[in-house]
Every structure is written in C-alpha cells, then in structure tokens.
Amino acid sequence: VRLVESGGGSVQAGGSLRLSCVASGSTYRTYCVGWFRQPPGKEREGVAGISKDERITYADSVKGRFTISQDNAKNTLFLEMNSLRPEDTATYYCAADLGNWACKSLDWTQFSIRGKGTQVTVSS
What's the burial of 100, exposed, middle or buried (CB within 10 Å: 0-12/13-18/19+)? Predict the structure, then answer.
C-alpha cells in the first residue's frame, strides 16, 4: 500500500488544519492506521492511531485538540487539528501496519508503512 499525505501548511496559533492521507494499492480495513510527527530538531513521536477494531488512541499532547478519523469508502485517513500551538510545528506522517500494536502504543517505529510527510507550521 502507498500512502500520500496532503493538507499541511502554515497557520497562526489557535488556528486549524485538516490533514488527509489517501491509500492506494490496498484498503485501510486490513490495517491499523495513524499519524506521527517529527518536530524540527527533535525525535519522531506518535500522534494518534485507529486500531483494526476501531479503538482510537491519542498522544497526551494532542488530546482534546486533534481528531483522527477515516473514510473506508474513500480509503482516506484524516487528522483534524484544532487550537494549534507553535509546538505542533512538525512534519506529519501518515502510517499503517498489519498489526494493532503500532496504533495502540503510538510507537512510530512499529508502523511498517509510512508516507513521505506533510509540513505543518504554527506561528505564534
């Protein structure tokens, strides 16, 4: 499966963005799917995931502000980001795995399939 992200951009603090990730070559139903990010100069970190049994996990840093969802009919994963903060500035990656652990643990290293990323910049 190939993953392609879109929707990144620049926004002021307090603003919103919606990221999308379209999968080709397979369907999301057979994978757990999620997002991770890499802030400039920092390590990658898991953001949110949906397991194959549709359980959703969020990183503490984004709970209440970000919403992950998927449209299986369109093979598209979304990340709605509200109340953005400068510390949310990062490259955001869409990811998938045949197992569930990656999405439940948000351990980005466990995602075997990853997109190329989309840049999100939040200014103060």
Answer: middle
pLDDT value at residue 1? 86
Q: 78 phi and psi, to 5 degrees?
A: -125, 155
Average of pLDDT values for 83-110?
96
Across the chain, what does the average pLDDT equal?
95
In sequence order, what are the beta bridge partners of 31? Answer: none
Sign (positive or negative) of CA dihedral 1, 78, 112, 36 = positive
Nearest to 47 by CA among 64, 59, 63, 60: 59
What distance in Å separates the CA atoms of residue 39 and residue 10, rounded to the nearest whole number?
A: 14
pLDDT at residue 47 is higher than 90: yes
First to last CA, the chain: 37
With left for phi above 0 and alpha for psi between -120 and 50, is residue 73 left, alpha or beta?
alpha
Label residue 60 left, alpha or beta by phi (over 0 means left) and psi (-120 to 50 means alpha): alpha
